[in-house]
Amino acid sequence: MGQVAVLFRLMPQGVETDMQALATAAKGAIPTGVTLRGMQVKDIAYGLKALLLSVVMPDMEGVLDATEHALAKVPHVESVEVMEEGLI
């Protein structure tokens, strides 16, 4: 079984969202077996920022969906999008 590298983009509910608190909560929401490789806050527009999470997970059915669902449940997250995905 291989490994998959995935880049998620988490959009906050608004410009007033504390990105540091969002990053901490997102880190704690990552399921067991998924490894966080990097995290970055990126400016989008008009003061809005996005949280980019780079993770590595096993290439198994359901792991990507479970991770995306867990990140979507983080407080103050408006949406979660898979930006990039690839086998490593």
Helix content: 10-25%
- The CATH architecture designation is 2-Layer Sandwich
Order of helices and strands: EHEEHE
* CATH fold descriptor: Alpha-Beta Plaits
- What is the overall number of helices? 2
Structural class: alpha+beta
Query: What general form does the structure show?
Result: elongated
Query: Major sheet: order of its strands?
Result: 2-3-1-4
CATH class placement:
Alpha Beta
| End-to-end distance | 11 Å
Rounded average pLDDT: 96
CATH superfamily: Ribosomal protein S6/Translation elongation factor EF1B
How big is the Rg? 13 Å
Low-pLDDT runs of 5+ residues are none
Total strand segments:
4
Tell me the β content: over 45%
- Main beta sheet: strand number and arrangement? 4 strands, antiparallel
Characterize the structure shown.
It is a single chain. The protein is α+β, with helices and mostly antiparallel strands and 88 residues long. It has one domain: 2-Layer Sandwich (Alpha-Beta Plaits), CATH 3.30.70.60. 17% of the residues are buried. It has a 4-stranded antiparallel beta sheet with strand order 2-3-1-4, covered by helices on one side. The protein has helices at residues 19-29, 63-72; strands at 3-12, 35-45, 48-58, 77-87. It is built from 2 helices and 4 strands; from the N terminus they run βαββαβ.
